[in-house]
Structures are given as structure tokens and as C-alpha cells.
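Annex B. Sample input.
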Amino acid sequence: MQHANAVLIKQQSKTIEKKMKKTIIRMVLYTGIVFTATAVNAQNQEDSTEIESMDEALISGQRLGQTRRNSTRQIEVIDGRKIALAQQPTMAEVLSQTGQVFVQKSQLGGGSPVVRGFEASRVLMVVDGVRMNNATYRAGHLQDVITVDPYMLERTEVLFGSGSTLYGSDALGGVIYFKTRDPKFRDHKFGLSSANVNSRYMTAYNGWQNNFSLEFSGRKVAWLVNATYSDFGDLRSGQQRNFSGRDTFGYRGYYIDRINGRDTQLKNTDPFVQIGTAYKQADILTKVSVKTGNFTHMLNLQVSRNPEIPRYDRLTDVRNGALRFATWSYTPQNRDLISYTLTLPETAKLRHRLIIASQGTEVGRVTRSFRNDNEKTQLDKVRMNTINYDLVYDLGKWGKLNGGAEIAMNKVSSSATNLNVMTGVKTDIKDTRYADGGASTNSMAVYANMSTVLTPDDLILEYGFRITQYNLTANFSTDNFLKLPYTKAENSSLAPVFHAGLTKKLDMEGLYLKASVSNGFRNPNVDDMTKLFESVSGSKLVIPNKDLKPERTTTSDLGISYTGGNMRFEGGAYYTHISNLLIDQKARYNGMDSFMYDGKQTPVYQMANTAGGYVTGLYMAAKFRIIQHLYADMNYTSTYGRYRSTEQSAWQPLDHVAPDHGRAGLRWSTEAWQLEAFMLFNGWKRAREYSPSGEDNVQYSAGGQTRSWQTWNLRALWKAHERLSMGFSLENILDLHYRVFSSGMSAPGRNLTISLKASL
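Annex B, continued. Sample output.
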């Protein structure tokens, strides 16, 4: 009977797919006719803003701004207009839609960006000049990017390659810089200057997002408030051709519910609905800017609240023929930021600012095995205080000096409790995720970066350095969970890094050669040194290791860029050598290679420094103006990585290295309309390319590999009136069932999004 149903589903899938393809072809032809007819009647004017200018100001490249022409780096810019057109629920999806940033997902309330083969704690995220990465950012997969609300952003920039000279530790693969909207001063009496209400519904998510923003401004005072509430249901996956190569892979066959005080495994009546992915989130941003003489003061408050995010991949784990967990969730996952920015008086030669910030995160991990009355909660709180001073000084013929200093202090507290769900009795336990006596890190750094124009519009040199002093202290009680033979773990390091690059104009107008060499580093943090964590259910228990060294990289980049009246192109290659690479490896605890954990003898691992590794890759990105208002864009990224434990060991696949990926699209852009048709694609990730470390989540793949896939998508924004805009998108039009590499859940199926924006 099951075989007959599978055959019937296949036949129906093929029929629907054929019909959808015919429909899409008709839509594309019709759209092309409309585009052409409209273009013939359009005014013959250049829309140069659509092709990114070499003089476009960048934030990430030089902290206080630098033009694209002078940058020696690969940089992707996602401005506010692109974010609005994308109509995505979180910043994880916005980044993945670029085709240049790969994003892994273990649950719907998540998204871990991968840049040049580096992920999580090896990619630095910065919001409004303040680093987000704290002392507990792990080397596995992170979901913190979803705490940055797309509605509050003015732009996002992705700096590819090491950014340690400017930004310090963690920026091995790159820097993702989030710039939120600022309230603007206006030459009138203080009062309401704008108000916006946004509402969005997404069918695959069965979810709503509602947003409002208000801005009050005057000559000396400006105030902005932005709030978003998201309510996502259980995600529906695609129902047609299964890109796993296995008909039922990824389907949610069963789930657990508690009925009459007893865990019960129930059959899912619709296996395409991934029960256990739904979650809610609230985000608030408010900024107040005040002018006093030549000084500008800005207070920035950001709050993100997630009361409960189910960890979907763990909820699908099986043990002894039944689902393993009745509960596995991040309860809660919260982030808050308060910062004060003082923009000091500007002179003809000097621009500078001071940022004082305090950022807090609160992450709870709540787990309970199937038909076990004991529910464990591990709660970790981090308070990170930072001070940044940044300056740009004009040195005349010597160029511009971009420099500054940074102080970052982290304090980590971890606790654990056990709740008997039958009796309601809660007790404190020692099974904390991090050092049960608390931990702290402190770092101080100074940096300087020079940009020298040797020949105007021809040869530009860029070079700089940074020195960072770092200290970590972690305390363990004498009765800690593992009964470790020490009560304190300490780490101290001094990290000097440098960057040098050049931009050279070639014979063709607008064509530039770009080359650079840069160091990167990542200090071992509290997560690396003190974590107790079951990484792979029943197969891998990671325990603390106090003897770790900083990871270091050296990256060489070589690329070209071209900007003409109707085209922009960027392409190149890079090679990153990694030394002291931190990766979890087999270890021993009290002379034993395994440990009884959660009722099962589990092999023991520790984070340790290996002999090293490397990542190399190619990239290209292009944008063309075909005719007035009509643009084509395409990009492609290919990455390859290897590591070895010792100098004598064989080379093995490095974890987190994404398969080849990219996108190709057409966009029609006018003042009133933005229409876009595009394809996202991923190549194969063969079984032999999965890392033996386990971080690639082979247990959540089909047969130990991920097949290639592609999705076809349409979206549009229409400014119907000065005060009213409407949008729609139709993603994964063929409703394909597929799973992104390393992810623990299937991707959304066909998703229709309807958006509405009203302004005052």
C-alpha cells in the first residue's frame, strides 16, 4: 500500500511539475513582452543608481566609510531597497537570497551564515559599530542573526575575507555589518515627520509579521522607534520532486504530544508540515539623536525577544525506534543592546566618534527525553561591555589614516536546573553548559589602516595593523559536573595582525586589479574552553579543554572589478592558510574514551588545536543594464577546504564548507515598480566531502550527502500611491522538496508572500 501511494505521489508530482513549468514559461514570455513594450515608450534617461558606483560609500570596509573604488576587498551591499524587495522573514533569509552568503538552519528560528568556508564564531557580526560576537559564540551553528530585524535596517554589508585588522577576533571568513536606520534632523519645529505600518503574510510559514515605525524630528532633536512582531506557524516543505533522491526523506512522520500527563508519539496527518518549527519573536529599536553645539549624541536601544524556539533537528532524532526528545528548545533566546555614540566635531582633516555599548544575551536550552519526567534547563547569560574610538584623519599626499581603539569585556554566568514535570519540583544541578563558577574575557586593541593614493584614479595602496591583548578566566566549583581536576582555566594571548593591498587601474576604463594579503585571528572563547555539550546525539560529547591557542589565518586575494555605464563585474580567487585550527577531536576523560551521559555511554571529544588547514575558492558577481529599467544579475561561489590533525595525518574535508552556490535574476526597476524573477541554486555535496568532525550534520542528510537543487522565484513591489505600497513574492514556484546542506530541516515549499505598507 505504501509503495502504491509513493508511485501515485510521483505521478502526481510529475504532472503538476509539467503544468507549473508551462505556466512559468507563459509568465516569463508575457512579462518579457510587457517589459519590452514599456521600455520602448520609456524616457531615454540613464538610471545610474542601479549599477553600483565605484564611488559608493562603504561602511564595513573602513568603519567610518570608504569608497568601493579604494577598497581592495570583495564586498556585497544589501541596501534598504533590496531588503524591502526581498520580503524575507529574518535576516538569515535575506542573506541567503543574495546567493553569495550560504545559510545553514537547524530550526526555523535560526540561520547560521557561512562566509568563505567559515561559520558562526569565525564570522564576525557587527551592528552599528558594535561587535555582536560574544564569549559564548560557538564554532558550530548559530541563530543570533535572526535577532537583527530586517525592518530596522538601512543597509547590510558583507566584507569577504579576513577583517581582523579593523574588527579584531572572529573575523576569519568575513564581517557582516548591520547598519540600522538613524533618525534624521529636519529644518522645522520638532514633531512627527513620518509613520509607517507594514503587514506581511507568508503561506509556507503560515505566519504573520506586523511592523510599525514612527519618526519625530526637528533641528536639534530626532527620535525613531521601530517595532516588529512575528508569529510563525509550523513550516510547510515542498511536496514535489524530492531533491534528496529518497521519496520520504525529510518528511515529518511522527511527533510527540503530552496527553493526560503522558508523552505520546502521534502520527502526523500531513508529513509535509514540519511540526515543531513554529515560534514567535518581538523586536524593538529606538534611537534618539541630539545636537549640542558641534557635538551629536545618539542613544541606541535594541531589544529582541524569543520566548521559545524549538530545536527542530533534535526533535526528529530517533532512539530505540522512537523519537528521542519530547522537548528541545531555546527557551528563551533574547538579545538587548544599549549604546551611546558621540560624534565629535569634524574638521577639514579629522572625523571621529566614540561608542560606548552594553550588550546582553540570554539563552536557555530546555531538554527532556521521551517519557522522562525530568526536564533539564541550562541557562547562559552574557553581558558584553565595549568601548570603541574610531577616527579618519586626512594626511594630505600620504592619504587617509583610519584608526582607533577597542575595549571589550565579557562576563558569562551559567546555571542549570532540573524540573520534574509530574511533581513541579525544581532543583539546582551542576550540569551547566559552561564553567559553573562563571567566566570572563577582556581584550584591548589598537588599530591603524592607511589608504594612499599614489596616482589619482590609478594606483591606490592600503595597509594597516592591529594589536590585541586578550585574557580569559573560567572558574569551576570543586563539585562540578565532570569533577574536573582543576578549578580554574586561564588563557592569555597577544595577537598582532596586518593587512596590505593595492588597487591598480588597468588599460580599460573602469577596470581595476585588486590584490591583498591579510592576517586573521580568533581567540579561544568561553565556549571553546569550557563547554559541556552533546554535539551528536549519543555519539559525541564535547567536554572542556583549558589548553587552547588562538586560531590564525593568512589570506591572499586576487581579483578584478569593472564598472561601466551599463555593467558592474567583480571576480577573483583567494587562498586562506589556517594554523592552530580549533576543531573537536577524540579525547579521554579520567582515562576513558567515553562517558555515561543522558543514559547512554557516549564517546568523549574536546576542542583542540590541529596542525592546520586551508580554504580556497573562486567567486564572481555581475550586474548588467539590458535596456532602460531592466537589469540582469548573477553570481557564483565555489569553496574547497581541508585540514589535518598533525603534520603526518592525511588531509580531510574541513567542516562548514558550503557546496557551490549562487543566483541569477532579472529585475525591472522604476520609481513605481520593482519586479524580479530569479533562480537560487546549490551544487552537490558528496558524501566524501563531509567533514569527519560531525559539524556538517551528516545524520540529517539523505544517505550522507546533499543533492544539487535550484528554486525559481518571482517577487514585486508596487508603489500604488505616495502613501501606499504593496508587494508579493512567489518562492519555490515548483514546490520542490529539498534540504540545504548541513541543515536539520527541509526548506520552505511554495511560498506566497503578500505585503502591505501604509505611510503617513
